[in-house]
Amino acid sequence: MPVAPRLALVCFGALGAAAAGTVLALSGGSGGGTPDAAADGPRHGVGSLCHRHPDTVHLSHTDGDRGTIAFVRYQGGSYALFVMAAAGGSAHRLSLAPGHAFPIRRHVFQGAPAWSSDGRWLAFTSNRTGRSGIYVMRADGTQTRRISISDAGDVRPSWSPDGRRIVFARSAEGRLYIVGADGRHLRRLSRSGYGADSEPAWSPDGTTIAFVRGPLGGGAAALFLIGSDGHGLCRLTPYAKSVYDPAWSPEGSRITYTIRNGTGFAIAVVDADGKELRTLTPEGLDFTPAWSADGTKIVFARGATLFVMGADGSRVRRLTRGTIDDSPAWRPT
After folding, report:
1. Does 129 map to a domain?
2. CATH number of the domain encompassing residue 84
3. How does 115-128 read in b/e, with b if 16+ C-beta sit within 10 Å?
4. What are the phi and psi torsion angles at 10 (to 5°)?
5. Which pLDDT score, from 0 to 100, does residue 219 have?
6. What pLDDT digit, counting tens, does each position of 110-138 carry?
7. Domain for residue 60, yes or no?
8. For the chain, how big is the Rg over CA atoms in Å?
9. How far apart are CA 38 and CA 248, in angstroms?
10. Is the Cβ–Cβ distance between 25 and 155 less than 8 Å?
11. Of 2, 132, 150, 158, which is the most buried if we count CB atoms within 10 A?
12. Is residue 39 part of a domain?
């Protein structure tokens, strides 16, 4: 997978066909330690599709337009984390500007924001030291600390519901890892014998992690589920040309993600048992979907602009304008 995030392609006018490889992915390095999940790849498939259905988390109804959205914005020569009201309006920068100048060929990157379930913390990816690592900070942008880093890149964090652990991808290895929110007790969760595992997303009930499995270097991929203990691997969706960005609905019954079957990218949703798959938007340049706290809306990036729509794909509206934005994450509380 490529080093530059999707926003880099927008900034330098290379959107179009090159967007096929623009998921947040900075290469990963070494680590180790627990039994591997059963290997599986496109040439073998999986013996059976997923039959598991994670427990449903009951939600109180709220107004889907309320709350806060964190996202990535390209500004001043670097990628930074911002927050804004879900209803729209001005945005506030959270992550600090780089403390010193970098060569123009290397843009400081903060990306893939992920809220803790209580909405008090954000985990994110950053290459601020020259290597990609996982960082956490308070929701107001203070108390930033690094919890994982590797020579080839740790990316795409997702919190456990209890806030004690974070799952992430070590992308050059094609493996998923879990680490404590304090940076301790790193352990390997998965390893594919035929390709790469990436973009993990922890289920709201804590039992299951959704992720993308595909060949190294890109190509046909699918959504998989694995138990948070590293067991019970199963394939959730059919293979498609490209699959990115899985995100669980807050009650845990559905997963939205980015799919490419033709020449463009669309937002899709699948039930957590894999029984029903629906494409919500036409294939174009739609990426990085995320659910509202009550599960009634989905925010996503269309090109380099944030949009919000109903969970059924209706009532699409623009959220940002005149800026270069991506990777939205709706605060869960």
Report:
1. yes
2. 2.120.10.30
3. bbbeeebbbbbbbb
4. -65, -45
5. 79
6. 899 999 999 999 999 998 888 899 999 99
7. no
8. 18
9. 23
10. yes
11. 132
12. no
Q: How far apart are CA 201 and CA 167, in angstroms?
A: 8
Please say whether the beta carbons of 211 and 37 come within 8 A: no
The model carries a pTM of: 0.84
Residue with tokens 């729209």: 88
Task: Give a yes or no: residue 1 inside a domain.
Answer: no
Q: How far is the C-alpha of 118 from the C-alpha of 109, rounded, in Å?
A: 25
In sequence order, the β-bridge partners of residue 267 are 258
Q: Three-state secondary structure along the chain?
A: CCCCCHHHHHHCCCCHHHHHHCCCCCCCCCCCCCCCCCCCCCCCCCCCECCCCCCCCCCCCCCCCCCEEEEEEEECCEEEEEEEECCCCCEEECCCCCCCCCCCCCCCEEEEEEECCCCCEEEEEECCCCCCEEEEEECCCCCCEEEEECCCCEEEEEECCCCCEEEEEECCCCEEEEEECCCCCCEEEEECCCCEEEEEEECCCCCEEEEEEECCCCCCEEEEEEECCCCCCEECCCCECEEEEEEECCCCCEEEEEEECCCCEEEEEEECCCCCEEECCCCEEEEEEEECCCCCEEEEEECCEEEEEECCCCCCEECCCCCCEEEEEECCC
Structural domain range at position 184: 6-12+68-96+107-330
Residue labelled with tokens 């990535």: 72
Of residues 292, 193, 181, the one with CA closest to residue 247? 292
| CA dist., res. 327 & res. 245, Å (int) | 9
pLDDT of 72 strictly over 60: yes
The total of structural domains in the chain comes to: 1
Q: Could you tell me the two tokens for 35?
A: 């039994």
Tens of pLDDT along 254-311? 999 999 999 899 999 999 999 999 999 999 999 999 999 999 999 999 999 999 999 9
- Burial class from Cβ neighbours inside 10 Å (0-12, 13-18, 19+) for residue 259 reads buried
